[in-house]
Write a structure and sequence with these properties.
Layout (H helix, E strand, L loop, with lengths): L2 H16 L5 H14 L17 H6 L22 H5 L7 E6 L4 H10 L4 H8 L18 E4 L4 H7 L3 H13 L2 E2 L4 E3 L11 H8 L3 E3 L7 E9 L3 H12 L4 E9 L5 H8 L5
Parallel strand pairs: 1-7, 2-3, 2-6, 6-7
Antiparallel strand pairs: 4-5
Helix pairs in contact: 6-8
């Protein structure tokens, strides 16, 4: 996080602590003054703006199509479950994703993951006016638990934080939900998925996660920054279901648009799913 961003957060927090009965007019004056003294900058173009991403950059981001499969967020007629998800249904019920993982959104996510642009997570959570998931049968939203996808211990040590946990905390703050970052853990190191094809990704993370407690009757929402093939989320969902979760959904900022079959054959020299 930038020095300016840290100062803005500190000033805002202390102003809130100073008086819980501040008049809205004074609040607006204070906010305008703060914006003049410490102007926020768009993380993509560096222009002054009040949000993490300015309006022109926001309009350039590629969003998930209006008609998309509720389980994978790829284009689907009438927003029905697509043929692939009917044939190979993921372990989660529904997926919430706002963007497709394309330029310049990819720069935004990489900055949040590696350059400590943590305001991106609050911004991503703010894009949802309402909680996008239905509660499990007979349960209330308050019983939902946000479980961030755990990262490998060596990556956590090198990076200092789990970006999925930061996103989960932003969602919890916005929707008054709880986070349990210890409910599902990695039980073996899987290495990087970046250079593996679709088949190799699935086999690499198979049975790599386990629940540390019973999730019986709970509505679980798995949280991660990006969904590529869904292999990691699927294994986390499997662990949650094995622990008794009544419902499992998934929340990501962006969804990778997978290459077509012909492209996969050219890249991997075989037709991979």
């Amino acid at each position: 996080m930038s020095i300016v961003g840290s100062l803005r957060e500190l000033i805002t927090a202390r102003r809130g602590e100073a008086s819980s009965q501040a008049v809205s007019t004074n609040e607006s004056v204070a906010r305008r003054t703060l914006n003049r003294l410490l102007p926020a900058r768009c993380v993509l173009c560096a222009d002054a703006c009040e949000r993490v991403v300015c309006s022109p950059c926001d309009s350039a981001l590629v969003r998930v199509p209006d008609e998309a499969c509720p389980r994978c967020k790829l284009p689907s007629s009438n927003s029905e479950v697509c043929g692939r998800c009917l044939r190979f249904p993921p372990k989660w019920e529904t997926l919430a994703a706002t963007f497709m993982y394309e330029f310049p959104l990819d720069r935004l996510v990489v900055g949040a993951k590696h350059a400590r642009h943590w305001g991106v997570f609050d911004w991503a959570a703010s894009l949802h006016d309402a909680w996008p998931f239905a509660p499990s049968s007979g349960s209330e939203r308050a019983e939902s638990v946000l479980i961030p996808v755990p990262i490998a211990a060596n990556r956590l040590e090198a990076r200092g934080y789990n970006q999925a946990l930061l996103l989960a905390r932003s969602l919890a703050k916005r929707f008054q939900l709880r986070v349990d970052d210890e409910a599902i853990i990695r039980i073996r190191d899987t290495g990087s998925q970046a250079y593996r094809n679709w088949v190799e990704r699935r086999s690499n993370v198979k049975h790599a996660f386990a629940a540390t407690r019973s999730l019986k009757g709970e509505s679980v929402v798995l949280v991660d920054d990006v969904l590529t093939t869904g292999a990691t989320l699927n294994e986390c969902a499997r662990a949650a279901i094995d622990a008794g979760a009544a419902r499992v959904d998934a929340f990501v900022i962006a969804r990778v648009n997978p290459p077509r079959a012909r492209s996969r054959i050219q890249k991997f020299n075989r037709a991979v799913a």
